């Protein structure tokens, strides 16, 4: 009986070794017949709330979003690769400084910084915080290179060392600053309840009375021209760097507006709810015009970046890169001199629902 057991054991061991050798040979000879794709598709669980575009190359784009996730494209959105900033907080916005430096802000008052184009990230130490709530929703770079970040509980932070440290510049209060913009003569904060604040130098501040009470969500300037967008379709413009603000009449169906970008000519692109992008040239036609090629009604435009004729828009379902050539178009039913914005739409490869 014991001899029989030894024979059975030898057979089992022999078969096991033989199977291992055969499997090793099979896997050693196996090679994939298709090259794995470079592009990494967006995972459905992640959502993206803010974007940054390289000041050196408008084809290099970063998206930041939920659970510290980041997506990076080097070819204008044709392909994406994923990354993680090291935080589990939701990130709301980012800014690219050039030379591979990117700074992101988000929930919990987190500020993270990368010096290798988003491959690795480090948390910025000593960020000023509130004892009640901390959430940073926007970060922008001023013409002098300073970084400005704004958020809830009156957060308005400045960095003058490329994002290595930040300082709170205004008194904390129970309201949110939603965006920051830079005119020829100073810095502008826009926020809840029609709040506006202006500083000529970033140190001394004064409140400015806005002609509306709705929350203001976005601001941008080019030269003396400026635009502010807000809830309930609010649009304010200035032609004197903010000395005077005028409310632009809009249709009652104009949705809430969350994003604004202005080019060097003073023409603005505005984005908001119901999948709508608008153009506004208040020098010639001081009213909104819906862009040709309207987006899906479920889309919400959360952020826009305009570089020359390249517009990158982050919507509620996907990022887009749009080419915006301005063309004069005259016809029998078009008023003389009226210009209509046309664009060639290129939908980026990334698709993911985006809801704040």
From TrEMBL:
UniProt region (Disordered), positions on chain: 328-356
InterPro entries (alphabetical): PSII_CF48-like_dom, WD40/YVTN_repeat-like_dom_sf
Photosynthesis system II assembly factor Ycf48/Hcf136-like domain residues: 178-255
Keyword terms of this UniProt record: Hydrolase, Photosynthesis, Photosystem II
GO molecular function annotation: hydrolase activity
Pfam families in alphabetical order: PSII_BNR
GO BP term, example: photosynthesis
Annotated protein name in UniProt: Glycosyl hydrolase
Native source species: Candidatus Macondimonas diazotrophica
């Amino acid at each position: 009986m014991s001899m029989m057991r030894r024979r059975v054991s030898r057979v089992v061991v022999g078969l096991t070794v033989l199977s291992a050798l055969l499997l090793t040979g099979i896997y050693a000879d196996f090679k994939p017949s298709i090259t794995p794709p470079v592009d990494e598709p967006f995972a459905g669980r992640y959502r993206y709330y803010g974007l940054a575009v390289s000041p050196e190359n408008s084809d290099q784009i970063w998206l930041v979003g939920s659970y510290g996730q980041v997506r990076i494209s080097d070819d204008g959105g044709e392909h994406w690769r994923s990354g993680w900033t090291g935080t589990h907080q939701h990130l709301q916005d980012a800014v690219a400084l050039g030379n591979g430096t990117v700074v992101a802000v988000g929930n919990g008052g987190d500020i993270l910084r990368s010096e290798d184009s988003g491959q690795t990230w480090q948390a910025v130490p000593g960020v000023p915080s509130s004892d009640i709530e901390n959430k940073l929703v926007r970060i922008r770079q001023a013409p002098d290179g300073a970084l400005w970040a704004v958020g809830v509980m009156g957060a308005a932070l400045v960095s003058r060392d490329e994002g290595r440290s930040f300082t709170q510049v205004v008194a904390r209060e129970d309201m949110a600053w939603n965006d920051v913009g830079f005119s020829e003569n100073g810095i502008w904060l826009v926020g809840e309840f029609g709040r506006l604040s202006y500083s000529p130098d970033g140190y001394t501040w004064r409140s400015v009375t806005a002609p509306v009470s709705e929350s203001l969500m976005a601001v941008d300037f080019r030269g003396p021209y400026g635009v502010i967008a807000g809830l309930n379709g609010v649009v304010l413009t200035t032609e004197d760097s903010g000395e005077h603000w005028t409310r632009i009449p809009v249709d009652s169906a104009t949705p809430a507006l969350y994003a604004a970008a202005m080019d060097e000519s003073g023409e603005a692109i505005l984005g908001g709810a119901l999948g709508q992008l608008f153009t506004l040239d208040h020098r010639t036609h001081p009213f909104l015009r819906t862009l040709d090629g309207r987006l899906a009604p479920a889309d919400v435009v959360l952020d826009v970046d305009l570089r020359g004729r390249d517009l990158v828009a982050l919507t509620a379902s996907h990022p887009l890169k749009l080419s915006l050539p301005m063309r004069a178009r005259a016809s029998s039913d078009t008023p003389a001199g009226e210009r209509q914005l046309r664009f060639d739409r290129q939908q980026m490869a990334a698709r993911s629902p985006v809801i704040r």
